[in-house]
Amino acid sequence: MKELKIVLVLISILVVFGCSDDNEQITPIDVTNSSITVEEAIEDITGGTFKVWKIDQAHLLQNGEATVDISSLYNVRDDEVTLSMNIDGSNGLLRWNRGFDINTNASTVEEAASDIRRSVQQLNLFIEETEFGIEVYSEENRLKGVYDETTKTITGTLKYDPDVPEIQITLTEKKAGDYIAPASTFTIGSELFSFTSEVNTLGFKVSQATNNLFITNRRNAVDDGSQQAFKYNLITGNLDELLFNRPDFATKNIEFINNTVYSIGGKSFDRFEYDFINEPLHETIENESIIHSNGSAALDNKIYVFGGVIAQQFRSWTTWEPGQSSIFPTLLPISDDLYNPDGEIVNGKLYVFGGWSVDQGSPAMSSNTIYTFDLIGGDLDQIPGLEGVFFAYTSIVQHLIYIGGRKGVDTNGDGSIDVYTSNFWVFNTLNNTLNEISLSNQLPENQYVIQLQVTENNAFLVTTDGLSEFYVYEVSLQ
């Protein structure tokens, strides 16, 4: 069994220093001596065991000055810093759940947004009293800040990578009311656009960094190489279409890596630039069979592929990076085949939802299990209760995972599935609870949902009539 390895990129937080060149005396800004002991500070900062902090304020730095406020960006709000330490100062640990990346090379709010998901960082943590007050810092000074016992804040700078500019930040305790609440109701709004295709297993992804919806799909049911891709701008309403040929007979998933759109599936993964001007490049995967009916999720520079058919294996998962020509699946010790599942990565765990058993030959035999894979520790776990969803599709908003899919219903009580309905759920990774989402209004007759994407403010659905017509709707959340 091939061991999966995750490369953790250390996050660094540095205190803002006021100096004009490297030879001057380094003096922290706005720091006063502390009036509490180190033990009292540790109790404040860690809550006695651990405490979760959020980025309350964040500014881009240009020439050492805070110039652009990015505090309200989705990829700033989803960051969490968990600080833990024994009262005697031992076993200090910082665990940084970064969520979406922050582009610290930016000069505007818009440029600071990113679609790239980043892995959890873990660093040794130290809390000490110095002449400047209570300093909070990590190994190699990757984290360094000053705690203010009056305002209960940690102020300093944040540097996500040694080679990128830092940002100025203020951390405050993250409380229950700071967590985004899950939606309970979807209200289907206006149709954004429509298109035609003979295939209803398409890739669909929202880019919050560029305010675009991306779709990839085959055009024809036969394997004649006809492919299509769409980019819809949510601000302007402009729709771009790319038609190209690529011999391929596989379902699609879309993931973002390095600000590039990857369409996952088949024997080659197509790569689109955000500007959507040129025909996509493709990277061929040399396996015994095409990859299809799978789920996917991206983290750092890796795409996780799971379920479906991977090199003629079911019940498996693997990772792929740009430039990698082969995929080596790892067979999982689970009972479900997971045909057409989907999933997301939250706080170092991959959550897999839905799918159905190929061995049973019927989508009525759907998986009732939510599988979780700890990408740091390597543990596999199971959570019951998804009510048998097949053709699942997922979307992530901070700690929430939204799931859509089709559910079989026995309407006449004879023990067999005779009706399939489009259903939606939201899974809260903080407490492993799953709640179904209701629709306040109905789709047009003979349409059912085949894809879903959700942001903090709204959602987007792709529906089909089951023949050749496809529709994209905007949805409000309540």
Polypeptide structure, described:
- The chain folds into two domains: 12-178, Beta Barrel (Lipocalin), CATH 2.40.128; 185-477, Kelch-type beta propeller (Neuraminidase, 6 Propeller), CATH 2.120.10.80.
- It has three helices and 34 strands.
- The strands form six sheets. An eight-stranded antiparallel β-barrel has the order 2-4-5-6-7-8-9-10. An eight-stranded mixed beta sheet has the order 28-29-30-31-11-34-33-32, with no helix packed on it.
- It has helices at residues 38-46, 74-77, 109-112; strands spanning 12-14, 50-62, 65-69, 80-84, 93-97, 121-130, 133-138, 144-148, 153-159, 167-173, 185-196, 203-207, 212-218, 226-233, 239-245, 253-257, 260-264, 268-273, 281-284, 295-299, 302-306, 316-320, 330-331, 342-346, 349-353, 369-374, 380-384, 389-397, 400-409, 419-428, 433-439, 448-454, 458-464, 469-477.
- The chain starts with 11 loop residues before the first strand and ends with a strand.
- It is globular.
- Mean pLDDT is 86; it is low at 1-32.
- It is mainly beta.
